[in-house]
Amino acid sequence: MISAIHTALSGLSAFARQWHDSAHNLANINTDRFKRSETILVEAPNGGVLPILQKDNSPGPTVLRNSAQGLIEVELSNTDIGTELITGIVVQRAFEANIQTIKTADTMLGSLLDLRK
């Protein structure tokens, strides 16, 4: 039971990091030359999940802008709003699943303690 709670708490922490990184990407969607980050979740050696931050260095779309030197080509952010919104939905469902795991483990642990009395 304790390992289930530990794993679920690890998942909550990792998905919170993923949510934070996705929000950071969305906050900078209109920042020229901004490179989005992606959180990769990997298995921890002692159980649970570790969030690994990975920068996406692919180029963003380019546009022409007026400047003092005339028209110049400017690279926009490579953040895709659709990808970030899907990440938000996945994170929300993962939070719900991990919270349900904690509730279930707590109930089972309580039942075992009741049997012990």
Describe this structure as you would to a colleague.
This protein is α+β, with helices and mostly antiparallel strands. It has one domain. It contains 2 helices and 4 strands. The chain has helices spanning 2-27, 81-116, and strands spanning 37-43, 49-55, 62-67, 70-75. The strands form 2 sheets. A two-stranded antiparallel sheet has the order 1-2. A hairpin with a 5-residue loop joins strand 1 and strand 2.
Percent of residues in helices = 40-55%
SSE order, one letter for each helix or strand: HEEEEH
What structural class is derived from the secondary structure elements? alpha+beta
Q: Count the strands?
A: 4
Question: Low-confidence stretches at least 5 residues in length (pLDDT < 50)?
Answer: none
Mean pLDDT: 92
| Net shape | rod-shaped
Count of discrete structural domains? 1
Reading side by side through the largest sheet, how are the strands ordered?
Answer: 1-2
Q: What is the helix tally?
A: 2
Largest sheet: 2 strands, antiparallel
Radius of gyration from CA coordinates: 21 Å
What proportion of the residues form beta strands (DSSP E)? 15-25%
Distance between the termini: 18 Å
What's this entry about, in short?
With 117 residues, the protein is of the alpha+beta class.
Q: What's the helix and strand layout?
A:
Elements: H1 2-27, E1 37-43, E2 49-55, E3 62-67, E4 70-75, H2 81-116
Antiparallel strand pairs: 1-2, 3-4
Helix pairs in contact: 1-2
